[in-house]
Amino acid sequence: SIRNANVASRVVYLSSKTSDKVYPHLTLPELTYLATMGGAQLVNLENVIGNFIVGKEFDALLIDPEAEGSPMQIFDEIDTIDRIFEKFIFLGDDRNIKAVFVRGRKVSGTDITNL
């Protein structure tokens, strides 16, 4: 998971600060890549999954960052789409997930026809 990779990356970074070589912690784009295309490449499925290129299997979550009871607080004036994505990754939970898609089919969630 991205959250666990982030924690591990920060532990390595903090531990390395006392040695001769400092390892920077992973950025959100790097963590996201590892969780998507990196994982697909690891299992030799990068031609099938890992991103949203046409022809690949569509696996995705539809999220509502302002769902009832959401652990995230969104500020319309300052939160960009990137910042909202980051908040979902590190703070979001099942309350924010409206629908789950696997191989292009909705396998869980609410009616999304009126979005």
Automatic annotation (TrEMBL):
<dbReference type="Pfam" id="PF01979">
    <property type="entry name" value="Amidohydro_1"/>
</dbReference>
<keyword id="KW-0862">Zinc</keyword>
<keyword id="KW-0479">Metal-binding</keyword>
<protein>
    <submittedName>
        <fullName>18443_t:CDS:1</fullName>
    </submittedName>
</protein>
<dbReference type="GO" id="GO:0008270">
    <property type="term" value="F:zinc ion binding"/>
</dbReference>
<dbReference type="GO" id="GO:0008892">
    <property type="term" value="F:guanine deaminase activity"/>
</dbReference>
<dbReference type="InterPro" id="IPR011059">
    <property type="entry name" value="Metal-dep_hydrolase_composite"/>
</dbReference>
<dbReference type="InterPro" id="IPR051607">
    <property type="entry name" value="Metallo-dep_hydrolases"/>
</dbReference>
<feature type="domain" description="Amidohydrolase-related">
    <location>
        <begin position="3"/>
        <end position="107"/>
    </location>
</feature>
<dbReference type="GO" id="GO:0005829">
    <property type="term" value="C:cytosol"/>
</dbReference>
<keyword id="KW-0378">Hydrolase</keyword>
<dbReference type="GO" id="GO:0046098">
    <property type="term" value="P:guanine metabolic process"/>
</dbReference>
<dbReference type="InterPro" id="IPR006680">
    <property type="entry name" value="Amidohydro-rel"/>
</dbReference>
